[in-house]
Amino acid sequence: MSPIAIQDQIPDNLCYGCGPSNHDGLRIKSFWEGDESICVYQPERFHSAGPPQFLNGGIIATLIDCHSVCTAIADAYRSAGQAIGVEPHRWCVTASLKIDYLAPTPIDRPVELRARVREATGRKRVVECTVRSDGREVARAEVIAVEVPAGWGAAPG
Amino acid sequence: MSPIAIQDQIPDNLCYGCGPSNHDGLRIKSFWEGDESICVYQPERFHSAGPPQFLNGGIIATLIDCHSVCTAIADAYRSAGQAIGVEPHRWCVTASLKIDYLAPTPIDRPVELRARVREATGRKRVVECTVRSDGREVARAEVIAVEVPAGWGAAPG
Fold first, then answer.
1. Cα separation of B115 and A94, whole Å?
2. How far apart are CA B98 and CA B131, in angstroms?
3. Closest chain A CA to residue B11
4. Exposed, middle or buried: residue B112 (CB in 10 Å: 0-12, 13-18, 19+)?
5. Residue A52 is nearest to which of B14, B57, B99, comparing CB atoms?
């Protein structure tokens, strides 16, 4: 496993889910392990679903989205033969997110996400992601990430 | 438009996205308008995507999930001829979430979500949801919500 998180190598990322400098965000950390990326996240108590002992589906979606898109960004650097964060910068955005929720997810222990780029065609990457709690699969997702020019974020909305 | 939010009639909901008593959550409010439900939400600045002027995709997913599932719960009460919150209580969980992100979403103005139950079969409801910013469609989703026994939340995970 690489010792430095993917997110800690991507510059200028204020994202709620994965931006290291967003102090009100989740600040997830993803690491390559071979062709798979891994993220372990301990939810906060206020990230609950309706019942307080389960994790909110929207937070699960946020973890999946950010972990998968950071994996796509890391793969974009890797495919170009660049270390993450080395210029020219690479950036991806989420085109779509499909999640199946398989079981209620306990909030009082970490979740483990594993993602893998299943398919890369031009600017598009299809990323598969699973979420596990205590080894049990609780959600499964497919995320389509699209590479955009590094200046994407600089232009006003 | 009904003057009382769906969420303010559903009892015992600590949800991060839609629980009225989760003070660290988004506390969205959804209202029936005929067969459609509407939610207007003003994001916080820390809900940003990588670039600070855009709204995070995970927060968008959370808004969609909670607005759509609350719509399914309200529809479950309505289909049973009950006012929301009247016993026996109704509850739904998210089985799946499919979101297409169509355009970057500005963070500095409200988003408007509209949801509608497209199909109801047994315990399953298919909910369509759109997200607009300044009238422009920025995301489109299909959420499958499944009705579960009201005691679902009382059992430990």
1. 22
2. 13
3. A50
4. middle
5. B14
Inter-chain residue contact B153 with A15, CB threshold 8 Å? no
Number of A:B CB contacts under 8 A? 152
User: Cα–Cα distance between B72 and B78 in angstroms, integer?
Assistant: 10
Distance CA B23, CA A144 (A): 33
A86: which 2 tokens? 């080395």
Element (H, E) at A136: strand A136-148
Residue A47 · residue A59 · CB < 8 Å: yes
Helix, coil or strand: residue A31: strand
Residue carrying structure tokens 């800690």 = A8
| Cβ within 8 Å of A, B 77-136 | 91, 93-101, 104-107
The identity of residue B111, as a single letter, is V
Per-residue pLDDT of chain B (157 residues; tens, 9 = 90+): 668 999 999 988 999 999 999 999 999 999 999 999 999 999 999 999 999 999 999 999 999 999 999 999 999 999 999 999 999 999 999 999 999 999 999 999 999 999 999 999 999 999 999 999 999 999 999 999 999 997 777 644 3
Q: What is the ipTM of this complex?
A: 0.96
